[in-house]
Every structure is written in C-alpha cells, then in structure tokens.
Amino acid sequence: MVLTRERNTLDHAIWPATARATPDGDVAVGGVRLSDIAERYGSPVHVMDELDVRQRCREFRSAFPDAEIAYAGKAFLCRAMARWIAEEGLALDVCSAGELAVARSVRFPAERILMHGNGKTPEDLRAALSYGVSRIVLDCASEITRLAALVSADRPAQRVLIRVAPGVDGHTHPAVATGGEDQKFGFSLASGVAAEAVRRVLAQPGLVLTGLHCHIGSQITSVTAYQQAARRMADLLAAVQDEHGLVLPQLDLGGGFAVPYLRDQHGLDPLTLAEPLLTTLRSACEVRRVPMPRVTLEPGRAISARAGVTLYRVLGIKHTATGRVFVTVNGGMSDNPRPSLYGARYSMRLVGRHAVPGHRSVTVAGRHCEAGDVLVEDAELPADLRPGDLLASASTGAYHHSMASNYNLVPRPPVVGVRAGESRLLIRRETETDLLLRDVG
Ligand SMILES: Cc1ncc(COP(=O)(O)O)c(C=O)c1O
Ligand SMILES: N[C@@H](CCCC[NH3+])C(=O)O
Q1: Is Transcription regulation among this UniProt entry's keywords (predicted)?
Q2: Is domain 5-49+306-437 classified as CATH 1.10.340.30?
Q3: How many CB atoms lie within 10 A of CB 279?
Q4: Region 184-197: what's the mean pLDDT?
Q5: Region at 33 (left for phi over 0; alpha for psi -120 to 50; beta for the rest)
Q6: 407 labelled as ligand-binding?
Q7: pLDDT over 60 at 401, yes or no
C-alpha cells in the first residue's frame, strides 16, 4: 500500500500534542489508538488528551508568570477537566450554577473561582455566594442591587469586578464579538455607564470592588485589539483613582485567544501576546499614574480545543445529480453546532486503516433533519471511503460537548480521556433512559 508522506503526517497545530500517526493508518492519542477507542466506547465519541490540556495551561502560566490564568469552563467542563485545571494552578471562570456545581463537586478552591454572565439568575448568584467564590463579575445595573440584597449583613462583603464594554473591535465573527458597543455584555465605557456602575457598587456596603473586567470576543488573532482594550481599561482605572481615590488591584482582560482549526489558519499563542500586551498595559498605567494591576486572563478555547478529537462512523455515501458527494456520519450538529452557527471549518481524516491512493473532495454531513447539518463542506477524503469507516475531526475540545444538544433526541456522545497509553470514560454516553427521565408528562 502506498501512502504519501503528506497525507500520513499530523499537523500538531490542530492535532493534540500526543497524537501520532501509526504505520498501519491509525492515529494514536495519549498512546491509545483511535480505532480502539471507537471499538470500546462506540461512536460518535469525543477524545480528550490530558497532556495537551496540561501543556496549554503551563504555556499560559509561563508566558504570564505574574498573572492569574482562569480557564473559561464554558469551553469544556467536567470533573476531570476541573481537576486538571486545579492541579495546574489555574483559576476557573464559571458562568452558571451548573458549571459551579461541577467545580464544587471536585472541591475546586473557591478562592480561585470567578463567576461571569450577562444574565445571572438569583439561583446562580446564591450558588456563588454559598460556595464563597472569590469574585463575581457584575454585568448590569439591576445585578448590582440584586447581589447586594443577597449578601446578608452577617457575612463578609462579596468581592466583585465590573464588566466593561471597552468599544474595541476584535475583528471576529459577529456572533462572538463582545468588545463593541452594540452587543449585550458589560457596561459601556464610552457613554460613562461603566463609571456610573463603579459609583453604584461603591455605594453598596455588601460589595467590595476589586477590579475591572473586559472580554472583547472569541477566536481573536489580533494583538492590537488586546492592546487597545488594555489602554481603554487603564483609562477607567485612572478615572476611578481620580474620582474615588481608589486603586483597583485587578484587571481582567478576558479570553478569546484564537486557535487554528485547519492547517492554514492562525491562532494567537500566549508567548506572542504576552510581551506586547504587558508592555502596553505597563506604559498605559505609567502615563496615567496608576499602579500596574494584577492581570487575569481567561482562556477557554486556547486551553481545551486542540486536546479534543471527535470520531464518527461513515453511515452512507451519496452522489447527487449535481456531482456532489455526501458522506453521512453518525453525528452532526448535535455534537458540533459550530459549522452551522459560525460557518466554522474543520478537517476530517480517515483513521483505522490505510486507504488506496486517490482522494476526492466530499461534503461530510451529519444525521440531523436539517439541510444545513454539514460538518465539513470540502473534506479531502480517500476515494475508497466506505460505510463503516472511521473519521476523525481535530480541534474539537472546546465548545463541542459544552454546546451539544439532543436535537432529534439523539443522545449526546461520551467524552473519553486519554493519557500514557490508557483511556477512561470522563462523561458517559447519554442513553434513551436519560432522555426519557426528564419527560414526565
Ligand atoms: C467572559 C469570558 N471570558 C472568557 C471566555 C473564553 O473565551 P475563549 O474560549 O474564546 O478563550 C468567554 C467566552 O468567549 C467569556 O465570555
Ligand atoms: N461558542 C463560541 C465561543 C463563544 C465563547 C463564549 N463567550 C464558539 O464556539 O466559538
């Protein structure tokens, strides 16, 4: 069997750190063959490379040694992930009582948890207070009074940050752009609403303002956008110092650092960002005569995306009258909604066997009842692809399982962790019994 080198290599920009192509056409991640994982746990199945996650955590910590790195749990959270994050010394950003429940179940240190959300419910706030999370990031005026009312007189004041909309364009997909004025997150800096939020928080005895926060969006490649946000936030730090004589010790610049999903795409790695961002912030603080605050960063995707691989079985191959070839797999928009939500592009690779030479461009479609349920529009796959073959999609560790749905009442796939030649179930496959449990009518 002849295989070109190009097709048998793995691009580690998008595949997990431990991924290796095996001589017989398979891929091993964490020392475990993907075809063995599909055999043992069924498909579709998400695979998470523990070492990849840990390495990404270490890269952030060494690029920003003085900063707090808070993993954004919305990208992917389960108990094992929360333990890895805690062990690597990161903090955790949660944005619901549900995410907090996972953190709580592994006793993630409350001192290292921040709670976010533009619409936190009273239940979210109560859960945060009851676990004693170190900071709650306030996002709208009514939340200031709601939280203050929940903080009882006999407990210590709650530390809070204020989320600011800094008016920065991160040049990303509109659905995940959160730095500008015309979106739902935060208090506007330009209109003075953020400065008014500071006044309101300072008037609440149950709340202690410890800093400011902004998050300009997700999948951002521009260092300049982060620099601009840092300057604008330094403006507000200075304004708070001037008006209230208050030095805020923390500045949370959010997450959003891009990762590549295809070999020709660019990401924004922590080492590239660190020096220009911190230099900009330091000099902005100097010019405005405010002390340099402690920086927090909140990477989600940049920690977990590349650790993930999703495996699918080919169910059928269809040739349309227009000449298009559809390869239908046993998953789709319920385990990966990103192509239909953002037009996100992915790769697909045959694993588990060698193909005879010869590739063609095909559309990999999901099993859901939507014409738009397409995972990859233009996958280069072997011409001898057949039903039963196993396909692997790389960079699926962030915003896949966490955004999965039960559309068409298809149970959500399991998540399997791999490390040092061993695999273990982290989240089991959802069953029809699970689905029926909620249906109590
Ligand atoms: C407040 C906040 N922090 C951090 C993140 C993590 O974003 P990303 O996964 O793009 O790093 C998000 C999501 O965009 C967010 O809303
Ligand atoms: N869900 C988005 C990112 C949103 C980040 C959360 N604020 C994605 O899949 O790219």
Answers
A1: no
A2: no
A3: 12
A4: 97
A5: beta
A6: no
A7: yes
In sequence order, the 6+-apart residues with CB closer than 8 A to the CB of 336 are 310, 346, 366, 375, 393, 396, 400
| 400 close to ligand 2 (CB < 6 Angstrom) | no
User: Hey, what amino acid is at 225?
Assistant: A
Paired sense of beta strands 45-49 and 68-72, if any: unpaired
Gap between the Cα atoms of 426 and 429, Å rounded: 10
Cα separation, 262 vs 397, whole angstroms = 14
Q: What is the mean predicted confidence (pLDDT) over 247-268?
A: 97
Q: How far is CA 2 from the centre of its chain?
A: 39
Given this model, what pLDDT does residue 6 score? 40
- According to CATH, the superfamily of the domain at 51-303 is Alanine racemase (3.20.20.10)
Token digits of residue 64: 């920003």
Give the domain ranges of the chain: 5-49+306-437, 51-303
Half-sphere exposure of 143 (CA within 13 A, CB side): 25
Neighbour count for residue 371 (Cβ, 10 Å): 7
- Give the other-Cβ count within 10 Å of 342's Cβ: 16
Q: Is 139 in the pocket of ligand 1 (CB under 6 A)?
A: no
Task: Give residue 354 CA to ligand 2 midpoint distance, Å.
Answer: 35
